[in-house]
Amino acid sequence: MGKKVLAVFYTQSGQLSDIIDHFTQPLVDSGATVEKLRLYPAAPYPFPWTGKAFFAVMPDCVNQIPGPLETFSIKEESYDLIILGYQAWFLSPSIPANSLMNHPQFKAVARNTPMITITGARNMWISAMEKIKPTLRGLGAKLVGNIALVDRHHNLISFVTIFHWMFNGKKDRYLNIFPIPGVSAEDISNTNVFGEAVVPHLQSGNWQGLQEELVDLGAVVIKYPLMFIESKARKIFKVWAGIISKRKKRTGWLVAFKYYLLIALFIAAPIILTVDAIFFKPFLSGRIKRQKQYYSGVN
Ligand SMILES: Cc1cc2nc3c(=O)[nH]c(=O)nc-3n(C[C@H](O)[C@H](O)[C@H](O)COP(=O)(O)O)c2cc1C
Q1: Does 15 contact ligand 1 (Cβ within 6 A)?
Q2: Where are the alpha helices (DSSP H) in 63-190?
Q3: Rounded to the nearest 5°, which phi and psi values hold at 147?
Q4: Rounded to the nearest whole angstrom, what is the distance from the C-alpha of residue 172 to the centroid of ligand 1?
Q5: Is the pLDDT of residue 1 over 90?
Q6: Which of 153, 164, 147 is nearest to 86 (CA)?
Q7: Ligand 1: distance of its center to the CA of 94 in Å?
Q8: Ligand 1 midpoint to CA 88 (Å)
Q9: Is residue 291 predicted with pLDDT exceeding 70?
Q10: N or C: which end of the chain has fewer CB within 10 A?
């Protein structure tokens, strides 16, 4: 009998739907029925964003406050595999992705179902995934694979170019000098390689070893400096989100957060990374290796 797969995702620019298309093509070729479901929030987020709207979503992202989604329908009562496409927003699952995980219709099909998560992020998705893992466990889903596509350019370059993309709505070169933002076209089309690795597992229903195969194929690459910055930033974002969400008048606080972010990334992070590289990192290689292994996995 043909296998049934649900691929559910939200995307603003269409990047994540391109990724899902390439990833699921080998499953379709193998004879599986792949139902693609694109989600829409009941009140759409702007794309391109305004600066104000962009930073205004930070507290609800970090505090994982779900919002209403447009009505959607899921055709089957159960699936052999669910592919959950998500994007990181402020080191957390995007509000639409989080809303999906809290939606009764999704909860009903997620129970006892193997699940593969896939993201198209700038480069910081670890914390978002660490929030998704327990949520999926709570739903009774079985996380069997995780794929993280990122912008491979330097952190400071991709920070500049993503804002160009988000605030103009065009995935093109800023000032004709900077590289194209987001996940590269090559990496997007290469996603079918990960889909091919999934096919035998889908057919046998045995998911053992899938994540290790995906990691060997380059589906998850953990870079120490990004992992390090993210581990610090997620704690600080939580504090900001806690303070801002209690305010009735948020505008001033959100502007302060914006400047904090710029200073943290362009000034503080390089200094902290240099200090860490000299005084701490050389003595922590065992711990760093274990952390990388853990974040590459699905447990
Ligand atoms: C409000 C907002 C916050 C974002 N925060 C992050 C982040 O913390 N880490 C990251 O890697 N990418 C971040 N991104 C980039 C997204 O993960 C994603 O790559 C981009 O929005 C394109 O996704 P799309 O398929 O929805 O168009 C953010 C994007 C938005 C709009």
Answers
A1: yes
A2: 95-101, 104-110, 126-139, 155-168, 185-189
A3: -130, 130
A4: 16
A5: no
A6: 147
A7: 8
A8: 5
A9: yes
A10: N
Can you tell me the mean pLDDT for 107-132?
98
DSSP string computed for 262-297: HHIIIIIHHHHHHHHHHHTGGG-HHHHHHHHHHHHS
pLDDT digits (tens, 9 = 90+) for 195-249: 999 999 999 999 999 999 999 999 999 999 999 999 999 999 999 999 999 999 9
pLDDT over 90, % of the chain = 100
217 Cα–ligand 1 center, Å = 24
Q: What is the pLDDT of residues 138-156, one digit of tens each?
A: 999 999 999 999 999 999 9
| 155 close to ligand 1 (CB < 6 Angstrom) | no
The two tokens of residue 277 are 């590289």
pLDDT in tens, 167-183: 999 999 999 999 999 99
What is the set of domains in the chain, with CATH numbers? 4-222 (3.40.50.360), 225-294 (no CATH)
Q: CA end-to-end span of the chain, whole Å?
A: 30
Pocket residue to mutate for ligand 1, from 13, 18, 22, 87, most atoms within 8 A of Cβ:
87
CB of 11 shorter than 6 A to ligand 1: yes
Indicate if the alpha-carbon torsion angle 58, 61, 65, 68 is positive or negative: positive
